[in-house]
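INFO  loader      accepted 1 record
INFO  loader      residues=302
INFO  predictor   begin
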Amino acid sequence: MPYDDSPPPTRRARPLSVAAALAAVCLTAAGCGGGQEPGGAGAASPRPGGDAATSTAPTGEQPEPTASASPSAKPLPKGPLTGRTVVIDPGHNPGNRDHTREINRQVDIGTGRKECDTTGTATNDGYAEARFTLDVSHRLRALLEAEGARVRLTHDADRPFGPCIDERARIGNEAKADAVVSVHADGSSVGNRGFHVILPAGVKGGGADTSKIVKSSADLGARIAGHFARTTGSAPSNYIGGNTGLNTRDDLGGLNLSTVPKVFVECGNMRDPKDAALLTSASWRQKAAQGLADGITSYLKG
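INFO  predictor   done
INFO  writer      dumping tokens
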């Protein structure tokens, strides 16, 4: 099945107040109940991607960072985000599948060790999460640069694999980014639908200390969730986050090692046919990028 990765014409990001952004999360059929997350058969199955659990796979060497981690060299227009730096972290790398030994290498996440990276998930007909995340990240970069932001990608499929999760965090830290957004899609059970934004928990240990970014990251995540719901029409996750679209975790190296405001966004569930139909649509991916851009802009102007 062919997939159109060419971006439609972009529009400028629209700011929205914090209250309106949070309210937008509730404008869905699921509502904003504080119910418990489902367990057992209804709970999310482990995703074959993202900051996954630890492994005892062989060790490999990690390539050096490439130019994808450098700021864009082209002149930027003056806009509401002039002087701001945003790092976009496209989840996974299309080449990871050919470098399983290397990506299974254990790296330090401050509170423990985890594998360098994972392959990511895919739809049932083979549309890879790594392809989805790059496409949305390119669209998001164009939108933010149109607003005057300096945008850096942690990678652009321009390296054999990776970067590892610790390097992804380091790229945002060294850029002194005003905001970092890691773009993902989930790989849960059929019937589990919707998006959720993962926020860093309060973590301190080893090289991890999120005490200075928990509050700001929560603000960034709430604004993204509100705008994402409004712009895409997608409901907050019905299986994670109690229908709020927000989920706090302490086991993700990309968040634990960050010293700047950062969130992960799971844009939908690739293994559910209805969500997959959205994720494989170029027009919906443009809406997803716009929702992310609007949330980031709201946060940076707030």
